[in-house]
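Teaching assistant here, posting this on the class forum so everyone can see the example we discussed in section. The complex has two components, and the goal was to see what a joint structure prediction looks like when all of them are supplied at once.
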Amino acid sequence: GDSVTQMEGPVTLSEEAFLTINCTYTATGYPSLFWYVQYPGEGLQLLLKATKADDKGSNKGFEATYRKETTSFHLEKGSVQVSDSAVYFCALTGTASKLTFGTGTRLQVTL
Amino acid sequence: DGGITQSPKYLFRKEGQNVTLSCEQNLNHDAMYWYRQDPGQGLRLIYYSQIVNDFQKGDIAEGYSVSREKKESFPLTVTSAQKNPTAFYLCASSIGRLNTEAFFGQGTRLTVV
């Protein structure tokens, strides 16, 4: 079945540091890929998405590129802020049109 | 405002009691989902519904039940058969077609004592 693997957290960075959160997936066909963000005590919000190979999703300074050859969708941001502290989930929709999530990566950004 | 509403935000129940979590959406979405989130773990799919009066089990359906009598509503009942019901429950909806994202409610934190 479909699966998503994310790097373990927590990831602790100083403000203005470069962020990478790795995500790889296993799926049949041509899944769509997503990054969601969850702030404490809240639901998930869509951060960005990509629906086909080589697409780049971007939002709020975050970017991720759909790499079919490496089955990856790594999240990057050039300069993180304290307000970016949250849990980030990589996800995909496969042939069943339901979301499959990774385990989430907690990001802590300090001054 | 369009969105998904889960209620209540916090819920306490005694062991052995059934409890129903509410999820309503006014986005005109066909598909709705229930996920369970435990500390340090990802989201696990409990049930999903792609159309009114139809639903499918997800990965961890045992001890839960759902209904989808209206497009807008997808309530989840946590029964006494669920061995470890204390968790954060998230409801979501989507258009239901491939390549479309899901929209999430704010979640219900259920504590069973």
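For the discussion questions: The interface with chain A takes residues 4, 6, 31, 33, 35, 40-43, 45, 48, 50, 58, 90, 92, 94, 96-107 of chain B (CB under 8 Å). The mean pLDDT of chain B is 92. Think about how each of these relates to the inputs above.
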